[in-house]
Fold each of these.
Amino acid sequence: MGISRVEDERDVVVTGKEEMADGVVRLTLRDPEGRPLPAWEPGAHIDLMLKEDLVRQYSLCGDPGDRSSFQVGVLREPESRGGSSYVHDVLAEGDTIRIRGPRNNFPLEKAKRYLFIAGGIGITPILPMIAAVNGRRADWTLVYGGRTRASMAFREDLQRAYKDRVKVRPQDEFGLLDLPALLGKPQRKTAIYVCGPEPLLAAVEAASQKWPKGALHIERFAPKSDLAAGPRSSFEVELAQSGKTLQVSENMSILQAAANAGVSVMKSCGEGVCGTCQTKVLAGEIDHRDSVLDDEDRAAGDTMMVCVSRAKGDRLVLDL
Ligand code: FES
């Protein structure tokens, strides 16, 4: 997976806030002076910097060809830590907010066929992907799951536009997605793109184990539960650009240690899911604990998310 590192930060005005389904609103954001917004590609997300220390990532779900606005879909999370409830309850049309990005950890790669699997609000990055592959007449299918039909944003638009390419499978009518049946036999030249809640992502990972390497593409907005845990020991980090060497203790991240030494690294989620703090590694073995990098990136061993990942050995040298 290639990671795009365009980092633009700007104010935008909320020019639209519409209810798209039970618990889902779509925000439309525009430049205050009507200037074009940065270019982006399907799969990209932006950070909404809602308040001090309240930064959340949302996938862009509009048309990449329309530079006049960004659109994001926001689900009211029952366990909201403040982000989704702020968007639903406080943010209003006419408000100005700061955004950062777009950033793309989920790029759409060329394939002969595509199988898109979306769970709930995970439909948002898939929407521009579908428009793109449909426009180039590639073969594709979407399997869209959710709790109920009423909770599934964009469902009617998708069915109207793409008819039987779209399989709508609300859980209260169909039960859990039958992934082995939906995935079928492993196929060459078919890319699987999936976004949704963690149990769905884990189930697709398990069901696609026999598929060719690189076929599965996953977008996460919550950390993989098994990654952050695990023993932590202290290690040394050399920051090659700043000429500093730091000790990172068991209860500290590299990002915190660097900040304490006066070297700031841009961060957003702080939990290894957004890719903002990605840092080049010049030497040393990495203990990857993020939910962004794929197996290929990890094997390359030259980049890491310094908000969560650590050293396998005693020492790392970073391009900071
Ligand atoms: Fe999001 Fe590190 S800040 S991955």
Note: Residues 267-270, 272-277, 290, 292, 305, 307 surround FE2/S2 (inorganic) cluster (CB under 6 Å).
Amino acid sequence: MTTILTYGTFDLFHFGHVRLFARLAGKGDRLIVGVSTDAFNARKGKAAFFSYQQRVEMVRACRYVDQVIPERHWDQKADDILKYGVDIFAMGDDWRGHFDHLGVHCRVLYLPRTETVSTTSIKSSLAGALPVEHG
Ligand code: CTP
């Protein structure tokens, strides 16, 4: 059995996330997704629109995902790889090079991101589309 592990915030769950999961699921038998907790995001200076529990609910509902785990800090990845018997650690290629050190435990892959969509761009578009408040 081939187990794949990836991490992310997955806020405003979008088709770029789905396509990443679809491609990862195609590389093995079990896809585990680490979802960043709100406390971890706060430490990164990042604020998600949806709460950790809401993001977990959406990621878990995706048919490519077999298991969701919390991502609480930067240094848990090696432990998770060993704990879950991970064969492939994978991230989008915006993270290229960042996790090469995990190659001592398993294969490390960086997949091309889906172009034209990101949580940040959705937030910007929606912010621009909102009516101006009068008052
Ligand atoms: N991802 C992807 N294609 C996209 C957007 C994200 O493959 N269009 C991947 C990222 O490379 C990462 C994972 O999805 O491995 C989680 O990314 P996340 O940061 O949660 O999503 P983004 O849309 O990139 O959010 P943000 O704009 O806040 O960085």
Note: Residues 15-25 form the longest helix (11 residues).
